[in-house]
């Protein structure tokens, strides 16, 4: 009889709004438990624990350091502003805490490499918190994209993630402040768009990128809206648009020589328990060119756990295999994070250089 998988004890560093969702995910995952939370004050940490279903036995700390110094904590989730990631992620790795890090993972790939080296040298698992990657729909989409008979060779990708932020957000959110999250919309919603493009392209990096002209910046120079085009040597092309200034939209369209994949809710599904995508295969016009033959089909995928709990479950499984089975950290996740960051950097450089073509160098 196989031994039961260990339950991973999580500490949360910081009480950002998104930590509410991940706290719930840690509770829902069968392989994890909420063990501790730390904030800059005990009062804030205690209120967060009470409001978000932490067990009564959970530890409440008035500093981030105290969480990392707790010897019983296996892993930490870090939802702090991006500018603080390099300090606290590196320290977490040095304290042998496995690291689930909110995106964007760093301000640039130079910082991320410091974080990843700390994880590697200390034998800890790294994963970024791009939740949609763990929805079972994502695996089904990959099957469709990899099907040579029904999708063929990838030719084009379009990705879009926007939401219309209110004045309170645009004036005060950390994502619009240069000292906290200097990448703005590019690092936040743009991260998802670029990850979607790389996922669709089987994580093959583009050769170069060109940022779209006329990005919108706020008065302190943080990006509120931008886009870019990505180009591969074999002729593939991708475009994306991300914005804090347009209605909530989150789409992927991928076009192959034989098929087309589309979905309109890739970051957060319309419904928590099920999600879908459409697949058009060898589409053409009907005889009078008044309709499509065959029509795209809808593929519905159900899940017993929400995607963020699936993420925590997978992360916990990897941590458990290291903790109890002597396994090495899974390098798939840091590799994907680094490729996403490389493209983010290239787009930002293209914007800064007047929309020049920028080569993506790994």
What does this structure look like?
- By secondary structure, the chain is an alpha/beta fold.
- The protein has two domains: 8-132, Rossmann fold, CATH 3.40.50; 133-307 and 341-359, 2-Layer Sandwich (Dihydrodipicolinate Reductase, domain 2), CATH 3.30.360.
- It has helices at residues 18-28, 42-51, 64-69, 85-94, 109-121, 136-145, 167-172, 184-187, 189-200, 307-325, 332-352; strands at residues 8-13, 32-38, 59-61, 75-78, 98-101, 126-128, 154-164, 208-211, 216-217, 223-231, 237-243, 245-256, 259-263, 274-281, 284-285, 292-293, 297-302, 357-359.
- The strands form three sheets. Strands 7, 8, 9, 10, 11, 12, 13, 14, 17 and 18 form a ten-stranded mixed beta sheet that branches. Strands 3-2-1-4-5-6 form a six-stranded parallel beta sheet, with helices on both faces.
- Strand 5 (98-101), helix 5 (109-121) and strand 6 (126-128) form a beta-alpha-beta unit.
- Helix 1 packs across helix 10 (307-325).
- Belongs to the Gfo/Idh/MocA family.
- InterPro entries: Gfo/Idh/MocA-like_OxRdtase_N (IPR000683), GFO_IDH_MocA-like_dom (IPR055170), NAD(P)-bd_dom_sf (IPR036291).
- GO terms for molecular function: nucleotide binding.
Low-confidence stretches: none
Shape: globular
Largest sheet: 10 strands, mixed
The rounded Rg comes to 21 Å
Query: How far apart are the first and last residues' alpha carbons, in Å?
Result: 45 Å
Average pLDDT for all residues? 97
User: What is the count of structural domains?
Assistant: 2
Protein name: OLC1v1017548C1
GO molecular function: nucleotide binding
Pfam families: GFO_IDH_MocA, GFO_IDH_MocA_C3
Family: Belongs to the Gfo/Idh/MocA family.
């Amino acid at each position: 009889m196989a031994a039961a998988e260990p339950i991973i004890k999580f500490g949360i560093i910081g009480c950002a709004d998104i930590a509410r969702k991940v706290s719930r995910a840690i509770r829902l995952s069968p392989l994890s438990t909420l063990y501790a939370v730390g904030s800059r004050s005990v009062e804030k940490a205690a209120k967060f624990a009470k409001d978000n279903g932490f067990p009564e036995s959970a530890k409440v700390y008035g500093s981030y350091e105290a969480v990392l110094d707790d010897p019983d904590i296996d892993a930490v989730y870090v939802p702090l502003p991006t500018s603080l990631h390099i300090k606290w992620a590196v320290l977490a790795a040095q304290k042998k805490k496995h690291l689930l890090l909110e995106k964007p993972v760093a301000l640039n790939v130079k910082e991320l490499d410091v974080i990843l080296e700390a994880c590697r040298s200390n034998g800890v698992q790294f994963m970024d918190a791009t939740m949609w990657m763990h929805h079972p729909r994502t695996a089904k989409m990959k099957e469709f994209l990899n099907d040579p008979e029904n999708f063929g060779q990838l030719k084009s990708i379009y990705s879009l993630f926007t939401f219309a932020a209110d004045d309170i957000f645009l004036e005060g959110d950390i994502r619009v402040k240069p000292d906290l999250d200097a990448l703005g919309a590019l690092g936040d919603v743009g991260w998802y768009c670029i990850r979607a493009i790389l996922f669709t392209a089987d994580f093959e990096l583009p050769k170069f990128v060109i940022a779209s002209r006329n990005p919108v910046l706020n008065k302190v120079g943080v990006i509120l809206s931008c886009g870019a085009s990505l180009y591969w040597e074999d002729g593939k092309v991708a475009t994306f648009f991300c914005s804090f200034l347009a209605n909530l939209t989150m789409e992927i369209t991928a076009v192959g020589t034989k098929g087309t994949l589309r979905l309109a809710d890739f970051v957060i599904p319309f419904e928590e328990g099920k999600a879908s995508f459409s697949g058009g295969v060898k589409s053409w016009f009907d005889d009078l060119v008044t309709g499509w033959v065959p029509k795209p089909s809808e593929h519905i995928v159900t899940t017993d756990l929400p995607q963020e709990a699936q993420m925590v479950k997978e992360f916990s499984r990897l941590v458990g295999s290291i903790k109890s089975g002597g396994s090495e950290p899974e390098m798939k996740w840091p590799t994907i994070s680094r490729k996403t960051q490389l493209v983010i950097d290239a787009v930002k450089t293209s914007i800064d250089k007047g929309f020049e073509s920028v080569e993506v160098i790994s």
